[in-house]
Design brief:
- The protein folds into 5 domains: 2-79 and 639-660, no CATH class; 89-216 and 601-635, von Willebrand factor, type A domain (Rossmann fold); 220-314, Immunoglobulins (Immunoglobulin-like), CATH 2.60.40.10; 317-516, 3-Layer(aba) Sandwich (Rossmann fold), CATH 3.40.50.880; 526-593.
- The protein has 13 helices and 36 strands.
Length: 663
C-alpha cells in the first residue's frame, strides 16, 4: 500500500482524543438525594455494566471513524506492477479494412470497434492524450486528441481498401512517440492482413488486443481476370476468370459480364467448398475499346464481388525482316496476309536505316553473315525497350562473328555444324507461344526434317528454354528471356536445302505466336495498393489527368526502358474505371480494383496470440468488461473513496449508539 499524501498520516494522532475522553469523563455530576437507596443498589450495578459496554463501542467507532477519515485524505493506493513507466499517451488502432464490414450479433464490426474505442477513453483521466491509427495512416491523426475530440475523429471513419500489418502499426506509433505507451489493437485479427509475428512485439509498449468477429465465416471472391496474349483486332476474345469459395459449403452463384454497359454473359456457376475454379469465356468484342466488369452476388462481404478490366485493341505489331537480299520470301507471305494486326516491312542489310530498328516490336535477323557494330548497338536498344528478336543463322556461318554477337547479348553461341539428318522429336507445348494452338496431347504427327544444324554452347548464365528438340536432344528453336525482351534462336537456316520447316504446319503458328507475343500485354486492370502505378503512352512532358466522376489527380511520371509509369501516389481509393486525359482528349482507359487479400477470412484465435507474445500483452475478449480490465491491469487501485465510506459508516454507528441506546 502506497499513500499519495503520506504526510497526512500524522493525523492518526487524533485517535488520542476519543481515548482521552473515554478515560477522563469531564461531565459534571449532579447529586440526587434519596430518602433511601437500598432499593437502587441492584439497578446501579446492572446499569454500570451496560454503560461501560456502550462507552467502549462508542470509543471503537470514534477510533475507526477518525482513522479511516485520515486514510481517506492520505489517499492510499496499490500500484500496478509495471516493468517500465508508461506515459499517459494512449494509442488506439482502429481496423477499418473491408473485412470490418462483416456483421456480428451486435451489428457491423466497424461500428462495434468505434464504440470500443470510446469505451477505452472513459477509463483514463482527462489529462491523457489519445492518438488514432487507421489503415489510411492520415497525417491529421498525428496529434493527440482529448476525449471529446477523439469521439469526433472516429465518427467519420469508414472502411478503406488499405491494409496494415502489426509491424507497420507499431512503426507508425514509433514515428509519433518513442516513449513506452499503451497500444490498443481493435480488429477482427485477420491473418492475411495483420500478419502477427513475435518480431512485431514492441519492447517497452504494452499491447492490448480487442478481437472482434462476425457471425458468418464464409466468402466468395472474384480473384483475377486475364487474357493470354495481346488483344488483337478480332471479334472474339478468350477471357479467363478465377473465383474462390472460402466457405465450407459448395456454392452456386450467378456470374455476369458487362462490356460497354451491355450484358454479354449471364451464367450460374457451382464452386466446390474451400477451392478455386477457373473459367474461360469467349467474348464477342464489337469495339476497339471495351470497358468490362465481371460481377457475382455474395453477402455480407461485397468489396470482392466485382472486378473491372479493359480490353483495348493493341496497335498493329511492327515487324522488320532484315536479310542479305531484298526479295520476297516465306516470312513476307505469312505476315503480309494479316494486315489488320501486323505492319510488316523488310530491308536489305545494305541499305538498312538503324533508326528504324528501335520502332519495331519484332526484329528478324534472317541469315545475315556480318553483324556490324551499328546493327549490334540498335539490337541492344531494342532489347532494352523490351522488343523481340528472331535469329536465323546463315549457311556457311562465320563462327567468330556470331560468337562475338551472341556473347555480347549473354546468349549461347554456335560451336560447330552437325551434317547428320534429324527429325524434330519433341514440341514443348507448355511454352507460351503454343497457347491455344494444341488441344490435348500431340500424337501421330509427322515432324519436320532437318538435314544439318549448328550445335550450341551451354552458357550457365543464360536462361534458355527449348521450343523444338531434335532427335539427338539438341534444340532446334530456343527461347531466351532478357528482362522484358524475348530472343528466339534457330539452330539451322530455314531454306529448302537445309530443312522443310517453313513448309510444315508448325511454321505458321510458331511465327505468328512469336509475333503476337512480341508486344507486352497491356495490363487489363491494376490493384489499389501503396506505391501502385500504371503504364501508358509517353506523356512527352505534358500534364496528364486521371479522372472519374469523383476523382481528379495528376499522376507523377517516370520512364523506365522506354515505358512511362504513372504513379498515383496513393490517391486512388475507389475501385472502378478511370480515364487518362491530355487536356480534354482521352488517351487511355485505366481500371482499378481492390486488393483481394482480405477475401480469405481466416482469423487469429486468442490462444494463437498468447503463444506469440509474452506477459506484456493483454487480450480483451468479448466476455471482459473493458473498463474493469483496464482498471485492474493498467490503472493503480485507489482506495480513498472506500476509506471515506467506512469512516462515515463508523460516524453513523457512533450517532446510533448515542441517540438510540439510553442507559
Amino acid at each position: 500500500m502506497i499513500y499519495q499524501n503520506p504526510q497526512l498520516l500524522f493525523g492518526l494522532f487524533a485517535i488520542a482524543i476519543p481515548i482521552l475522553i473515554h478515560l477522563f469523563n469531564f461531565r459534571k455530576h449532579e447529586n440526587v438525594f434519596f430518602s433511601s437507596i437500598r432499593f437502587l443498589e441492584e439497578i446501579k450495578t446492572k446499569n454500570n455494566k451496560k454503560r461501560n459496554i456502550k462507552n467502549l463501542l462508542i470509543l471503537i467507532s470514534r477510533i475507526f471513524a477518525i482513522s479511516f477519515l485520515v486514510l481517506a485524505f492520505a489517499k492510499p493506493y496499490i500500484p500496478v506492477n509495471k516493468e517500465v513507466d508508461l506515459s499517459e499517451d494512449i494509442f488506439i488502432y482502429l481496423d477499418n479494412s473491408f473485412s470490418m464490414d462483416a456483421i456480428s450479433e451486435q451489428g457491423r464490426l466497424l461500428d462495434i470497434a468505434k464504440n470500443k474505442a470510446i469505451e477505452i477513453t472513459r477509463s483514463y483521466s482527462g489529462s491523457s492524450k489519445f492518438y488514432l491509427i487507421t489503415n489510411d495512416f492520415l497525417n491529421t491523426h498525428n496529434k493527440g486528441y482529448s476525449k471529446e475530440n477523439f469521439k469526433q475523429a472516429i465518427s467519420s471513419i469508414e472502411t478503406s481498401p488499405n491494409i496494415k500489418s502489426l509491424s507497420q502499426i507499431i512503426d507508425r506509433k514509433q514515428t509519433i512517440s518513442n516513449n513506452p505507451d499503451y497500444i490498443y489493437i481493435i480488429s477482427d485479427l485477420q491473418k492475411n492482413t495483420l500478419k502477427i509475428t513475435q518480431k512485431d512485439h514492441a519492447i517497452n509498449d504494452k499491447i492490448l488486443f480487442i478481437p472482434l468477429q462476425g457471425v458468418i465465416n464464409s466468402n466468395l471472391s472474384v480473384d483475377s481476370v486475364w487474357v493470354e496474349g495481346p488483344v488483337l483486332k478480332k471479334n472474339n476474345q478468350e477471357v479467363f476468370i478465377k473465383i474462390t469459395n472460402y466457405s465450407d459449403n459448395e456454392k452456386e452463384i450467378p456470374l455476369s459480364l458487362r462490356v460497354n454497359n451491355k450484358t454479354k454473359i449471364k451464367q450460374l456457376l457451382s464452386i466446390n467448398k474451400n477451392s478455386s475454379e477457373e473459367y474461360k469465356f469467349s467474348v464477342y468484342l464489337d469495339s476497339s475499346i471495351n470497358i468490362c466488369e465481371f460481377s457475382i452476388v455474395d453477402h455480407p462481404i461485397t468489396f470482392d464481388n466485382q472486378i473491372h478490366f479493359n480490353l483495348i485493341n493493341n496497335n498493329k505489331i511492327n515487324i522488320l525482316n532484315i536479310k542479305e537480299k531484298f526479295e520476297s520470301d516465306y516470312i513476307q507471305r505469312l505476315y503480309k496476309n494479316d494486315t489488320t494486326n501486323f505492319k510488316y516491312s523488310e530491308k536489305s542489310i545494305v541499305n538498312l536505316n538503324y533508326q528504324e530498328i528501335k520502332e519495331q516490336d519484332l526484329l528478324i535477323i534472317n541469315e545475315i553473315q556480318v553483324i556490324s557494330s551499328g546493327l549490334l548497338s540498335s539490337i541492344k536498344k531494342l532489347i532494352n525497350k523490351g522488343g523481340s528478336i528472331i535469329i536465323i543463322p546463315p549457311i556457311n556461318i562465320n563462327y567468330n562473328e556470331y560468337k562475338e554477337f551472341l556473347s555480347s547479348l549473354e546468349l549461347d553461341f554456335f560451336l560447330s555444324i552437325d551434317t547428320n539428318t534429324y527429325f524434330i522429336k519433341k514440341t514443348h507445348v507448355d511454352h507460351p507461344i503454343f497457347n491455344n494452338v494444341f488441344e490435348g496431347s500431340i500424337k501421330n504427327i509427322s515432324y519436320p526434317k532437318i538435314n544439318s544444324h549448328y550445335s550450341l554452347s551451354k552458357n550457365t548464365k543464360s536462361n534458355r528454354k527449348p521450343i523444338y528438340t531434335l532427335e539427338n536432344n539438341e534444340t532446334f528453336l530456343s527461347h531466351y528471356n532478357t528482362d522484358d525482351a524475348n530472343i528466339y534462336i534457330f539452330n539451322a537456316p530455314l531454306n529448302d536445302a537445309i530443312s522443310n520447316f517453313k513448309k510444315h504446319a508448325l511454321f505458321v503458328p510458331t511465327f505468328l505466336n512469336i509475333a503476337t507475343n512480341s508486344i507486352n500485354q497491356n495490363h487489363i486492370y491494376y490493384t489499389i495498393q501503396n506505391g501502385s502505378y500504371f503504364i501508358s503512352e509517353n506523356n512527352n512532358n505534358n500534364i496528364y489527368h486521371l479522372r472519374n466522376r469523383s476523382t481528379d489527380i495528376i499522376p507523377t511520371t517516370k520512364t523506365i526502358n522506354g515505358k512511362t509509369r504513372y504513379y498515383t501516389n496513393n490517391q486512388i481509393s475507389k475501385s472502378g474505371q478511370y480515364k487518362l486525359y491530355n487536356n480534354t482528349k482521352v488517351v487511355d482507359h485505366i481500371a482499378y480494383n481492390y486488393n483481394n487479400i482480405e477475401s480469405d477470412n481466416r482469423f487469429y484465435e486468442i490462444n494463437e496470440i498468447k503463444k506469440l507474445f509474452d506477459k506484456n500483452t493483454i487480450i480483451i475478449n468479448k466476455n471482459n468488461n473493458i473498463n474493469q480490465l483496464i482498471n485492474a491491469n493498467i490503472n493503480d487501485q485507489h482506495y480513498w473513496k472506500t476509506c471515506l465510506m467506512i469512516s462515515l459508516l463508523f460516524f453513523g454507528i457512533e450517532i446510533l449508539l448515542l441517540k438510540l441506546i439510553k442507559i
